[in-house]
Amino acid sequence: MTYVVTEDCIKCKYTDCVEVCPVDCFHEGPNFLVIDPEECIDCSLCEPECPIEAIFDEDDVPENQKQFIALNAELAKEWPVITEKKASPPDAKEWEGVKGKLKYLER
């Protein structure tokens, strides 16, 4: 079992979640974070830290977000680990709640 970062994180990329992770399973891309399913120990500490509720237990990922399970696994292999909180993008608030953000994902 693992936790999954979903579409709401795209272009918001709040990093509150990374500091609480005891196993450093978060990876950072240009405008999105992912969780490495091979490293995640299912501790659930990250989920309540996400201010936009973009992190879900794999079993609870909304049906329309299921593609993010594979996307987290794929991108975690490519992106570097992030362990410290960083400033969010200056326009993050403008992207909160916006639907259909997958097309804006930068690899």
Tell me what the structure shows:
The protein has helices at 67-76, 92-95, and strands spanning 3-5, 26-28, 33-35, 55-57. It is built from two helices and four strands, in the order E-E-E-E-H-H. It has a single domain (3-83), classed as 2-Layer Sandwich (Alpha-Beta Plaits). It has a two-stranded antiparallel sheet with strand order 1-4. Strands 2-3 form a two-stranded antiparallel ribbon. 13% of the residues lie in helices and 11% in strands. With 107 residues, it is mostly loops.
CATH fold category name: Alpha-Beta Plaits
For the record, the CATH architecture stands as 2-Layer Sandwich
Q: Spans with pLDDT under 50 lasting ≥5 residues?
A: none
What fraction, in percent, of the residue positions are helical? 10-25%
Taking strands numbered 1, 2, ... along the chain, how are they ordered across the largest sheet?
Answer: 1-4
Rg from Cα: 12 Å
Envelope shape: globular
Structure class: little secondary structure
CATH class: Alpha Beta
When the domains are counted, the total is: 1
Share of β-strand residues = 5-15%
Number of strands: 4
Q: Give the terminus-to-terminus CA distance.
A: 25 Å
The helix tally amounts to 2
Task: Summarize the helix and strand pattern as letters.
Answer: EEEEHH
Average residue-wise pLDDT: 97
Main pleated-sheet profile: 2 strands, antiparallel
